[in-house]
Amino acid sequence: MSTPAVDPKLLEVLVCPITKSPLRYDAEAQELISDQAHMAFPIREGIPIMLAEEARQIDGDA
């Protein structure tokens, strides 16, 4: 089963809801990474979940 692709145009306009900084797309993990907030926002069925309570903390070196 393949994961749905995220629209590249959508990725261009999304920013971190906490810091308003750009996000980095991790296609393998299906997450949007905020390096400034040290958080990873999940992508479920091709839809980015941009809620802080749904994000997971990542360490600063990730």
Automatic annotation (TrEMBL):
Q: What SUPFAM superfamilies does the database record attribute to this sequence?
A: Trm112p-like
Q: Which GO terms describe its cellular component?
A: cytosol
Membership in a protein family: Belongs to the UPF0434 family.
Record protein name field: UPF0434 protein MTBPR1_40256
